[in-house]
Every structure is written in structure tokens, then in C-alpha cells.
């Protein structure tokens, strides 16, 4: 994917930037396409009370925000789904932070930029099997829950050869071919977090 987007930037930067947005569902500032369709809005992106306060009621066919983009897959909200339709059963509290310098847009191949970079992702959930396991197995690496066939999350999915990403538009949809895996999972752990009552009990124990 990185090579694909770099190639497109070199030939037509505007087109590549649009593909970037459609894959993610947000501008680089964090402003969602649902609230800032025409141009980036850094003030919106930097406001946590506003940048996550939206739904997809006015875009049921994904013409503004593709049904298969990362943002909509990870939290479908009010999107009508064919499988696992109750989003509330699979909600998680999520926080993340990145490390490493941004990718160098002037690199001509993956070997030109060997700087380690990535993201630390933490989630909190009462039932791991019904939340993060569903997100990873169904919403990231399958497409049938939104009638997208074999398409996977274009941003964090484990892509197979010949993978595609569909952008709905009129009069004919657009399909991006050659999607590659460009986020690699390095490891993860499930950690038990005691309840507040348990923490209070532990704090009150005598030596």
C-alpha cells in the first residue's frame, strides 16, 4: 500500500490524498469526513467533544465515507450491517500513541526508509472475546458483515494477493486494486484489570 500510494502521489498527488482519506475516513488532523467532507478542519480534528460526535444516517451507501474504510469498520455506529448488527455488544474504550518519525514521502522504495515506526494501541473491555476478538476477526479481516465480500480493512487488515478497496460513487463505483498489508502486528497481551471495588479492597489490606 505504501508503494502504491507513493506511486500515485508522484503522478497525481491530489488523487492519492483522496484515496488516503477514503481509506482512513478522517483527515490527518482527525476531522472525520462525515463532518468535514470538502476540506480539512484542524479545529474540529483537535476537539475531542466534536470529532467523534457523528453517525452515518445521511450516508447509508457510503458515498461520502466508504463502508469499508477503517473508521467505519472499527465503529459502524448506526450503519445497517448484514452480520453482527448490534454495535453496542462490541464497543471498546480505545487509546493509542505513535512512535517514530513520519514516513518520508520522498522515499522511492521501502528500503530507503528503515526508521522504526508504529503505534501502541490499548483497549479496555469487559469481554475480550465479544469485543476486540470480533473487531479483529470479523470487522478488520472480513467484509461480509457489510456486504463487502472478501474486502478487508485497507488500513490495518492482513491483505491477500489481489486485495481491493471499494469507493462508492456515482454513476459507477471505484475499486482500488493491489491493496497491500502495510501495518504489521508485532505482539499483544491480554491484561486483567481489577474492578474499583477490588482495588479499594487491596488498598485497605493490612501488611
Number of helices: 5
Question: Helix/strand-derived class?
Answer: alpha+beta
> In what order do the strands lie side by side in the largest sheet?
1-2
Query: Spans with pLDDT under 50 lasting ≥5 residues?
Result: 1-14
Number of domains: 1
- Largest beta-sheet details: 2 strands, antiparallel
Strand content: 5-15%
The radius of gyration over CA amounts to 19 Å
Percent helix range? 10-25%
Number of strands: 4
Distance between the termini: 56 Å
Mean of residue pLDDT values: 85
Would you give an account of this structure?
This protein is an alpha+beta fold and 207 residues long. It has one domain. The chain is 24% helix and 12% strand. It is built from five helices and four strands. The chain has a two-stranded antiparallel sheet with strand order 1-2. A two-stranded antiparallel sheet has the order 3-4. A hairpin with a 6-residue loop joins β3 and β4. The longest helix is centred in the first third of the chain and has 23 residues. It is globular. The N terminus is likely disordered.
